[in-house]
Specification:
globular; about 400 residues; 13 strands; 14 helices
């Protein structure tokens, strides 16, 4: 995200963006827009939200458990299915799925047979008899069972309707993949898949220390420098030193031209963007602290009285730096984009250019989202508010 897009996005750009990241995390909170749309917007600029669901329905992307629940490209889904089938997982989704099978295996098989004979289903196709709240064990039984079959691979998500999953047999979903499923991935040894995930993680991260690699695909055990040594020897990874870091840094060889530009002082960042709390740039708190000197917590899971910044806080990326954060809410019926609060980091001295580009980034997101009117609350420092409003008026 060094530069803003140079042209309007096309459908293929959405697939290419997911492929570069290797993972697009799914989260259903939609105080602004749901996270996958925001992550794509930060990289693509203005694009139709429907493209994501369309790509899923025609098989260009698929859903799986990886970092968390994620979209991946059709080219990668075979690797994820093989990995989960061959390796022991300690992911919470697998643990809940195992409990569901232990308690209700007979009923789960009845449900699976219904999908087999009658076709794809939604959780909402089943009535519940009690009043539940959010969370796995408060879901109605059929929702838990559908998710358990999804976690274990018998079911996949064939499409989404109003962002709700529609489940079908994996064998039927896999037949529509574009590109088609590579059957050879199912026989890849776990060590080969792990090696591929390590390389993909380093490529997606851009530059990373060894200790940050495993989190990207939730690999266990952690990746260490000894495991990376053969990848350095083969030339697939490059090792560099970063000023202020006490550990070696790694770059994928595909990024060698960018590394050369960085060493020559020619790598310039010009982009300003508001980031999802679940953007891969910020989801590893240790990495974002080391790289950007930015402490970040997703406070929607923090009790209101203990929040420092707000419920749904978007980090602000400006020309290669994380300069602050804003608590936002989209009021769709009113066409209003509310910035409840905006905080610049204490180390940041706002310039006229910075505020102009920040004002443009907020206005552009608000317009893309269909909430072009902007309401601005408190700011830190306070004088930022008048500058932003002046830009919006002008």
């Amino acid at each position: 995200m060094l530069q803003a897009p140079r042209r309007r996005a096309r459908r293929d750009d959405l697939i290419a963006t997911i492929q570069r990241m290797r993972l697009l995390q799914i989260d259903s909170i939609h105080v602004v827009a749901r996270s996958p749309y925001l992550v794509l917007y930060a990289r693509l600029g203005d694009y139709p939200l429907a493209w994501l669901e369309e790509a899923l329905e025609v098989g260009r992307i698929a859903e799986c458990w990886a970092h968390e629940a994620c979209f991946v490209t059709a080219a990668d889904i075979g690797l994820h299915r093989a990995w989960r089938a061959q390796s022991e997982s300690n992911h919470w989704a697998d643990k809940h799925a195992a409990r569901a099978r232990d308690a209700n295996l007979k009923e789960m098989h009845v449900l699976l047979e219904r999908v087999r004979t009658s076709g794809a289903v939604r959780a909402s196709d089943f009535e519940r008899t009690d009043r539940g709240v959010s969370g796995w064990w408060e879901w109605k039984p059929e929702k838990r069972w559908l998710e358990a079959w999804f976690a274990s691979g018998e079911l996949m998500v064939t499409r989404r309707e109003r962002f709700q999953r529609v489940y079908d047999l994996a064998e039927r979903v896999l037949t529509k993949l574009d590109p088609p499923l590579d059957a050879s991935t199912s026989t890849l040894p776990p060590d080969d898949i792990r090696r591929r995930f390590i390389l993909d993680s380093v490529r997606a991260l851009g530059i990373t220390q060894a200790r940050w690699i495993a989190d990207y695909f939730r690999l266990k055990p952690a990746v260490d420098e000894r495991e990376l040594a053969p990848l350095l020897a083969s030339g697939e990874l490059l090792c560099v030193q970063v000023r202020g870091w006490d550990s070696a840094a790694y770059v994928h060889r595909d990024h060698a031209p960018l590394l050369d530009s960085a060493f020559a002082g020619r790598l310039r960042a010009t982009h300003t963007a508001l980031l999802s709390p679940f953007d891969p740039l910020v989801w590893d708190r240790a990495r974002v602290r080391a790289m950007f000197d930015f402490d970040y917590t997703i406070e929607c899971y923090v009790p209101a009285a203990k929040r420092r910044y707000g419920y749904y806080v978007l980090p602000i990326l400006h020309r290669g730096r994380l300069i602050g954060r804003l608590d936002a809410k989209a009021h769709r019926a009113e066409g209003m984009f509310e910035v409840k609060a905006l905080f610049l980091e204490e180390s940041v001295t706002p310039t006229e250019r910075m505020l102009a580009e920040l004002a443009q980034a907020i206005a552009a997101m608000a317009t893309w989202h269909g909430t072009p009117r902007i309401r601005l609350g408190r700011c830190r420092p306070a004088q930022v508010a008048a500058a932003l409003r002046a830009h919006w008026r002008g």
